[in-house]
Design brief:
By secondary structure, the protein is mainly alpha-helical. It is built from 14 helices and 5 strands. The chain has 2 domains: 252 residues, Rossmann fold; 72 residues, Orthogonal Bundle (Tyrosyl-Transfer RNA Synthetase). The longest helix has 29 residues. The radius of gyration is 22 Å and the shape is globular. Bound molecules: tryptophan.
């Protein structure tokens, strides 16, 4: 067995810090392009897993940032699993909140957006015991120092305003590794902020095979999963030009109606320059609106900005409102239909959970066999 430092001073921490460096980011982007090309040639060797934490309702940032991409991968023929990470809700809050309502709404949004439950598996990880059991051996492969250095754990912990960190928050990267590895996903579409988790997942997969594996390096129990970053990072801000956040009231949820959308966009922050241009660096609020219209219309931001030109922010807002409402008209109608049929949505989740359980049971059996824990 190769003795990788597990004392919190060696390789592991460097690996995590490394995953956020500029050079490493460039490698991830290049690797993402290779994966996209590979999928276009033959999707059969790929399995995608992505997920959302059901802490609220999905908004158009989720749609353009990830949901549309999942639907695209599914439709390209990639085996796709979509996780509703319900246990992750309680990493940094006291209660579960209106969890059932949120899970149902998220499921409705997935289906309305085009996730096809006949092809893709939609599941909640709390309903998959074998997935969660993998967390135990995985926890033996990481140190507390390594977890404390994880940039995402740090950021989450800072965001809780000095509140003591729960054991679940500290270890959630390990839980997330189990989400990815239980189904042996090799492609995980994520934003930049999740890259340390992917690195941690690869480290856990490698260490599992070094320590407990079946002694045949050509047949590891767990694969090395790659992040799939989109080429043109879709960074959507809230309507006030700052980070999207429900408490700031700056998000357009997928379930909002046309009038509410119009009202929110009318109040959106712009700037004093009447000429509309796409300049995200210097004019984030205006550029964000331009980007929203461009994404909704399937056009380039520069092209949309040029069309508005000197007509000013009012004209831009009218364009954005119409584009967003048109783009999500059928999504909203389908979402409402689905929510009116909770028995159907429950059926989709029950079926997804059953399929996820079959996969998790098989993987856990392999892991326990490798660990010689079969009695
Ligand atoms: N942490 C992710 C988020 O907050 C959700 C998530 C949980 C996830 N498990 C995952 C994403 C596994 C990708 C893979 O959005």
């Amino acid at each position: 067995m190769s003795e990788e430092a597990l004392d919190g001073t060696g390789v592991a921490g460097d690996v995590l810090a490394e995953s956020t460096s500029e050079a490493s980011l460039q490698r991830t982007v290049a690797r993402s392009r290779e994966i996209e090309a590979g999928i276009a040639r033959d999707p059969s060797g790929y399995r995608v897993l992505t997920g959302d934490r059901p802490t609220g309702f999905l908004h158009i940032g989720h749609y353009f940032g990830s949901l549309a991409n999942r639907v695209r991968l599914q439709n390209a023929g990639v085996d796709t699993l979509v996780l509703i990470a319900d246990y992750q809700v309680i990493t940094d809050r006291d209660g579960v909140g209106p969890i059932k309502e949120r899970v149902m709404a998220i499921t409705a949004d997935y289906l309305a957006a085009g996730i096809d439950p006949a092809r893709s598996i939609v599941f909640t990880h709390s309903a998959v015991p074998a997935l969660n059991q993998l967390v135990l051996p995985f926890l033996s492969l990481v140190t507390d120092a390594e977890l404390r250095r994880n940039p995402t754990v740090k950021a989450e912990s800072d965001a809780t305003g000095g509140r003591p960190m729960s054991g679940l928050l500290l270890t959630y990267p390990v839980h997330q590794a189990a989400d990815i590895l239980f189904c042996k996903a090799n492609v995980v579409p994520v934003g930049k902020d999740q890259l340390p988790h992917l690195e941690q997942t690869r480290v856990i997969a490698r260490r599992f095979d070094e320590r407990y594996g079946r002694a045949d390096p050509k047949r590891p129990v767990f694969p090395q999963a790659d992040a799939l970053l989109s080429d043109r990072a879709v960074m959507i801000l809230g309507l006030d030009g700052t980070k999207m956040s429900k408490s700031r009231g700056n998000v357009i949820e997928l379930g909002m109606d046309a009038d509410t959308t119009a009202r929110l966009i009318k109040k959106a922050v712009t700037d004093a320059d009447r000429h509309i241009a796409y300049d995200p660096q210097n004019r984030p609020a205006v550029s964000n609106l331009v980007n929203l219209a461009a994404l909704s219309l399937g056009r380039e931001p520069d092209d949309v900005a040029a069309e508005v030109g000197d007509a000013g922010a009012g004209a831009l807002k009218r364009l954005v409102t119409e584009a967003v409402n048109e783009r999500f008209r059928s999504h909203r109608a389908r979402r409402a239909e689905l929510l009116a049929d909770p028995a159907y949505l429950h059926g989709v989740l029950a079926d997804g959970n059953a399929r996820a359980n079959a996969i998790a049971d098989a993987t856990l059996a392999e892991a326990r066999a490798a660990m010689q824990m079969v009695y």
